[in-house]
Amino acid sequence: MTEFEMNTHQHATTGKTNGRLWGLSSQDWANIQEQTCRPVYLAAFDRLAINETSYYLDVGCGSGMATALASEQGATVHGVDASQALIEIAEQRSPNGSFHVSDIETLPFKDDSFSCITGFNSFQYAGDPVAALSEAKRVAKPGAKVIIMTWGEPEGMQAASLVAALKPLLPAPPKGSPGPFALSNKTLLREFALKSGLKPIDIFDVESPWQYADLETALRGLASSGVAAKAIENTSHHALDKAHRKALSPFENLDGSYNIEATFRCLYASA
Question: What is the dihedral of CA 49, 143, 206, 162, to 10 degrees?
């Protein structure tokens, strides 16, 4: 146990379910789909000025690409994710890092621990997103910098059609539950940060295209997310691949590769 950690009781919230689903295709996520966010990670680290003095936490760290990149820039890295399988990959990528399987609504760290914190498409998928972001605020040092990544505006974004392809395959969401693009609205994104005690500084967008060498790679990557796993359990893997093939078809290049434009929106805030 490091100086930043403390014991907590994990709650049986959405984290347990998400951890199981996201762990089902952990290698494909790590090797294929997580690569699609690399430009966002690098842009975020430029804003955060990550260096050897940084004590960095990635909330919902997945298989640890972001923490590995931060470690390369000299940061002391910590990661939290609900998936044991993804955490094991993160540990392999950053042997000197510290990683925990935990619900992001109950972070296993003391108050005022980190100088910079990120959540790349993570906070909004918690059972209580405001509680999850408030936890990040709790473990952030006063004045620490925080970046929240969510989807960009769906209108005109090519990747939005791939997200939409999953909707008919998923169980009906609870009435009033937010969709995947709920925080794409700048006003709502700022309000989300303010409700959690953060002070918004800036909102910026990052172009981060999804590129696949061939159809097989694209289908494996797209099937590796927790949301895709839920769609498979609700229907079948065949149904998922069929929906993805149809959604991918407009983006096939002459050589059989695929390039899909995607935009992610980041809120830069101070604790």
Answer: 130
